[in-house]
Amino acid sequence: MKEKVNKSAEVMTKKVNKEIELNKVYNESCLDTLKRIPDDFIDLVVTSPPYNMNLRIRNGKYCSRQIVKEFSTKYSNFDDNLPIEEYYNFHSQIISELLRTSKIVFYNIQIVTGSKRAIFKIIGEFSDYLKDIVIWDKGYAQPAMASNVLNRQSELVLIFEKSNAISRQFSKCNFKRGTLSDVWNISRGKKIDKNHSAVFPEKLVETILTNFTDENDIIYDPFMGTGTTALVSKVLKRRWIGSEINEEYCKTITQRVKDEVSLFNSI
Question: How many angstroms separate the CA atoms of 227 and 235, rounded?
Fold first, then answer.
């Protein structure tokens, strides 16, 4: 019986590899990658989309912030200032596709002016699939860009699940009762690329993968950035797929995974 299951898994892997190669980053929009991924193929999604940091409010209306590299640009060749409805529609479409292709989704977001209304709307739209929310406490708050604004010390990890979101119990987890809190105290990630300052900390990805996946599980990151998810997946012996629109970031990811340049020794 075991041999039959293993053969079935092997056939499935070969079939998917005609469209999707594992342990590879695709230099394209995640929506293009997701079109080629079958239903329920991904074991877990972990990602941190751009914040839409450069959309601001002026005279009660949305407008783009002046793009100043030293002040408001976290990504190379990406202005991070989608109109609020476009931002909402984009992420709504992505989350729908992630729920189609994967078993569970860890979607890291930060509440900023340019994302606030869209995120609250998304939480409402996908409430039937929202299983839980983790607070990521980064340890200290960076000063707000404007006056009369709360400094932001935390980010949220929205956990979506397709099959049993009504329950707070996870169908697959590796932690014992009473050992994992919903507030994670993890420092910010260290910059890997000079043109990408919003780095996903390895410890955050490690916490998710060690507690909610097993070896050889398939992990997907639709906004891979400089490749933290790929690196941690490789170190923890998980298989991975990534999407990233920036060609230079893709080169960084390939090199990081090849070299296994990891901060784990300092964690």
Answer: 12
Angle between helices 202-212 and 228-235 (to 10 degrees): 50
The residues spanned by each domain of the chain are 2-266
For residue 163, give both structure tokens: 């099959």
Rounded-to-integer distance, Cα 173 and Cα 129, Å: 18
Each residue's pLDDT tens digit, 139-189: 998 888 788 989 999 999 999 999 999 999 999 999 999 999 999 999 886
Nearest 5°: CA angle at 188, between 198 and 34? Answer: 50
Q: Whole-angstrom Cα distance, residue 67 to residue 82?
A: 13
Q: Which CATH architecture is the domain 2-266 placed in?
A: 3-Layer(aba) Sandwich (3.40)
pTM of the model: 0.85
Would strands 55-58 and 61-64 be described as parallel, antiparallel, or unpaired? antiparallel
Pairing relationship of beta strands 183-185 and 130-142 according to DSSP bridges: parallel
Cα dihedral 234, 75, 32, 85 in deg (nearest 10): 130
Look at strands 152-161 and 218-221 and give their pairing. unpaired
One-letter amino acid at 252 equals T
| Contact status, residue 240 vs residue 246, Cβ threshold 8 Å | no
Q: In what order do the strands lie in the sheet with 183-185?
A: 24-26, 239-243, 218-221, 44-47, 104-109, 152-161, 130-142, 183-185
Q: Are 113 and 72 in contact (CB under 8 A)?
A: no
- Which position has the token pair 């993890």? 186
Helix or strand or coil: residue 226? coil
pLDDT in tens, 32-87: 999 999 999 999 999 999 888 767 767 777 677 655 554 444 545 556 678 889 99
